[in-house]
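Example 3.2
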Amino acid sequence: MINREILRSIEFFEDLDEDVLQALLDRSESMELVRGDVIFEEGAAADTLYVVEQGRIAISNKSFDGRESMVALMEEGDLFGEMALFDGLGRSAEARALEASQVLAMPFEPLLALWNAQPNLLWKVVGLLTRRLRAMDSALADAFFLDVTARTAKHLLEIAGDRDEFEIPITQEELAGLVGASRERVNKSISSFVRLEWLEQNDGVYRIKNRKELEIRAM
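Structure, written as tokens:
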């Protein structure tokens, strides 16, 4: 069963009455996924949004020659697949499970009915979409102003969060797609952090030894 605290942490749902929230949940279903399961493909018709209950979901685009660029990594409590709710177009990217995961699938129809009945709730939607645009602006600025090493440092810090010891929950290819560079250049950047003793690597576990220098290099 979906953890209601997860839904309440999402701006879409935080102010809904319990009976309204329950009505939405009654129309929704949980999906159990294994690594590699595709939730939707780029360009597919859309009638559902998703909330990550557990696990990790990659949002990615593919070029005409099959190369992949991961544009977002969705974790517990993240909402995705909502864009088509507002423009009626197909999926703008692919969503794929990176590990055993569980997502809540919520159809558009009851949400649209809710907002038609209570249009004041759309301010929450505006807030969410504004943050999405700000995140996109930040990613575009990083791609333009930061070199591969800086982008690698920034993504490693984002994955680590407040922890000094962490694992990278995605493959080297997927990390390269997230950084927006080749796997070789990303690995070279990580090797340089290890050589400088900012980072320690042991059997897939990383430990930050000099967070300040990594943060400086990520700018």
